[in-house]
From TrEMBL:
The lineage of its organism: Bacteria, Pseudomonadati, Pseudomonadota, Gammaproteobacteria, Aeromonadales. It comes from Zobellella aerophila. Belongs to the HyuE racemase family. This is Aspartate/glutamate racemase family protein. PANTHER family: PROTEIN DCG1 (PTHR28047).
Amino acid sequence: MKIKIINPNTTQAFTDALQRLADGVARPDAEILAVSPASGPSAIESFYDEALAVPGVLEEIRKGDQEQDVDAYVLACFGDPGLYAARELTDKPVLGIAEAAFHMAAMVSACFSVVTTSPRVRFMTEHLVSRYGFDEQCKKIRTTPIQVLDLANSPDTAIAKVIAECLKARDEDKAEAIVLGCAGMSQYRTRIEAEIGIPVIDGTVAAVKLCEALVDMQLSTSKVLTFNWPKPGMARGMQADIKSIA
């Protein structure tokens, strides 16, 4: 079983950390391949950044199916950029880490709060919670005064701020679990959980383990209607070489 983790930004330090994290939790027969696209934003903190990241995500899906014999994919950015488009490009399972984390959190707690990065991403996160149907379970979305790259450049300071907000979520929101709202926080999950004493869900690990289950169950992306293959000949320019593999 080969699971490809696509870090939609181009910061290699994050990709390397995701590789180490996934290698540590994947079962012995699962091969993990963590990659970054050749081009795109160094961090994703806006709708514009998300849009810039999607072409690289789709190219990595194409390579995974046509060149790398990948069995399932993880999109390791909490905005799940290009998730639905990716599901149209392959019949292999494709999971976004926000979607995976919300489902896991709902299975281990009655309610949860999301702790993410800067205030600019609040609306983006609210949109995800609503889109995936977790409005009732999500108590609050809490932002922190950090940028995504702070998690790579000054991780101790950044994680201290994340922990402080997690404690507020526990005590003020009465959240019974925390969802970490950034893939850059993934490698610090156990440290954060030890500090706050309630379950902390990292979407990257959640998505990897769900991918293992989906592959075992031989479940593929439905192509009956919504996520059907792209129509050939519709694209020009940078995406013209991404063709249907049906």
